[in-house]
Amino acid sequence: MKALAxxxxxxxxxxxxxxxxxxxxxxxxxxxxxxxxxxxxxxxxAAGEIDQEIIDxxxxxxFENNGFRAPESLMEWSLFICDELTxxxxxxxxxxxEKKLALVTEKSVLKKFPMTAFAKPVNREQIKLCxxxxxxxxxxxxxxxxxxxxxxAPDLGL
Length: 158
Hints:
This protein is mainly α.
């Protein structure tokens, strides 16, 4: 999210914080997608977070399940689209023998992208929205996200 904020002239710290927080409740809510994001919002409000832009962004990334509105702002669309691609990139890394993000290339991600049997749950149409909603070609979007993930690979355990 920080890299996308830089590319799209967003607030780098706010976008980064939102990216870190958006799935905070996933372990507790993964069995009930309609509840995903509700606990996160409850927790961050209890901690004193009142930035409506952050709250709305977290909610919109799961709008298809939680009943909140669809993304509208660049930050909201960025999270919604980026979230799906990061999962796909992790899948690409995990099928490699060494399971390391450092060895994943844009080419390998783009090669697997049209293979619908690979990482089947990943919504490729959602990822392709990077072109329409963010004005970033798919190849460039993959490069931005992959390089950002590679920069923090030790934190991701990959």
